[in-house]
Amino acid sequence: MAAAMALAIPQAHAANIIGFANNATACGGSTLCSTNTGPLPVGTQGYITTGSTPFNLSTINSWFQIDTTTPAVSHLPNQPPEPLGGAGNFLVRNDTGAVVTSFSLTLTDTFTATTPSVGFCSGSSGPLCDNFQIHGGAANYFTTFTLTGPNCFSGCGTDSANFTPGTVTYNWSGGTGVPIGATFNLNFASWNNDVFATQVPEPGTLLLLGSGLAFCLGGIAWRRHRQIPG
Fold it and tell me: Three-state SS string across the chain, please?
């Protein structure tokens, strides 16, 4: 039975990639825009390849998901499934009113023993892992790329790490950051399982969680407050 299980679980991991791709300014083809209709605000409601409205960086926890199953299933409230599957781009605008000098995105993954490319974290038995990778891109907004989280098994704090099922956090920092109002492609490639932005509870607890964009924007707001003359 153990031998059969070992054969059933591939040993090569996928390269579930997310990266800042370039200074894109238009949608179409493999680049998604926000729709103008639906219960969520413009810039948050998705998804369409023929529009012209970027997604808002400030609401990324409400729209970022990758849906690879057939039929596709949405994991976010009031959103349809993401239509491109395991590879594509989101056109995003920095609507925060500040230069974003660091950025984190925490995702909940859904891989199981039957997901293609998932294998044992080490050897021929034990917990299952999948590989995740983080990239920069032509925009050169950031210089440091790391993967972190409580489910990290190996490679933690680098740009390529193995995780057990749960959550994975993509972190970009260093460099000049994302300018105010800049548009760019947030791209995803080589995914074979669904992932979605980890949801957070009441707004008052966002800064305590340190999860995803909410933490970074809170840091920016705090620094601005401290710079106001008394």
Answer: CHHHHHHHCCCCCCCEEEEECCCCCCCECCEEEECCCCCCCCCCCEEECCCCECEEHHHHHHHCEECCCCCCCCCCCCCCCCCCCCCEEEEEECCCCCCECCEEEEEEECCCCCCCCCEECCCCCCCEEEEEEEECCCCCCCCEEEEECCCEEECCCCCEEEECCCEEEEEEECCCCECCCCEEEEEEECCCCCEEECCCCCHHHHHHHCCHHHHHHHHHHHHHHHHCCC
